[in-house]
Amino acid sequence: MLLLPSLLGLAAFTYLPVLRVAIDALHVTPHGAGGATRFVGLENFARVLGDAAFRQAALNNLIYAVGTVGPSVVLALLFALAVRRSTRFNAVVRTILFFPSLVPLVAAASLFFFIFLPGVGLLDYYLAKLGVSGPNWIGDTDVALWSIVGLTVWKNAGYYMLFYIAGLQNVPRDHIEAATVDGANAMQRLWYVILPALRPTTAFVITIALIHMLTAVDHVVVLTKGGPSNATNLLLFYIFQEAHENFDTGKAAAATVISVAVLLLVSLGSLRGMEAGSRREA
């Protein structure tokens, strides 16, 4: 009985919405009030997969994943290694590195909007001091997505650092001391002792990073609204456009199902990696 309120909340706010999206993905509702919903089977999925805008958004998400997950995880590990010891100085540095993750994404995007403003933004100001002319950071199709990547890495690396700091506390000290006695230098201890012990942590951090990547939308809305020419359109913003701008709820639901399926596959793959890492350590 004690679990009943939680189960009801889970059903009302998780399972029922998921079921509704799955049902909507199989139906079409004509535009305008009073339109009768019509069952169309997998037609919405065919329309989504045949939509060039969806394919562009999926490609953008792939590039976004490559550009954000790897650098964020590597930076988080480097940060954690640098400040893993408990000292007052490291506590201050940890706070500074973690602070960007506390900034709401909309606020961070607004800040970076002024940094990226062509000609008058902070970034172009310092480039001009060096005699360099910067591109249109959020208006150039070749650069805009990478500007969003930079914002994401800045915001998330400090958050992922905390998981690595916790993981480093669990690396057996006797293994490190044994490697030191055997003559291993700092790089060898890192490569052969510390990194293998951090495999489960790394798999978990990658899972979280991929989930963040697939659910990113706020900064796209603030900075570019998917432009220019869909160069920064990501899957979640594509779904928003189909549902609230094109009023095609069936197509939006089908795109949501596809995105959730990808997210589940990615999460399961990462969990398998965590289990494999744990077995190696055992």
Radius of gyration from the alpha-carbon trace, in angstroms: 23 Å
Q: State the end-to-end CA separation.
A: 38 Å
What is the H level of CATH, i.e. the homologous superfamily? MetI-like
**Tally of extended strands?**
2
- Low-pLDDT runs: none
| SSE pattern | HEEHHHHHHHHHHHH
Number of separate domains: 1
The fold-level CATH name is MetI-like fold
Structural class of the helices, strands and pairings? Answer: mainly alpha
Give, in spatial order, the strands making up the sheet with the most strands. Answer: 1-2
What share of the residues lie within helices? over 70%
- Helix count from the secondary structure assignment: 13
Q: Specify the CATH class.
A: Mainly Alpha
Walk me through the structure.
The protein has 13 helices and two strands. It has one domain (39-281): MetI-like fold (Orthogonal Bundle), CATH 1.10.3720. The chain is globular. With 282 residues, it is mainly α. A two-stranded antiparallel sheet has the order 1-2. It starts with a helix and ends with a helix.
Secondary structure elements and their pairing?
Blueprint: H1 4-24, E1 27-28, E2 38-39, H2 43-49, H3 52-82, H4 88-102, H5 105-116, H6 122-129, H7 144-169, H8 173-181, H9 186-197, H10 199-214, H11 218-223, H12 235-244, H13 249-281
Antiparallel strand pairs: 1-2
Helix pairs in contact: 1-13, 2-13, 3-7, 3-10, 4-7, 7-10, 8-9, 10-13, 12-13
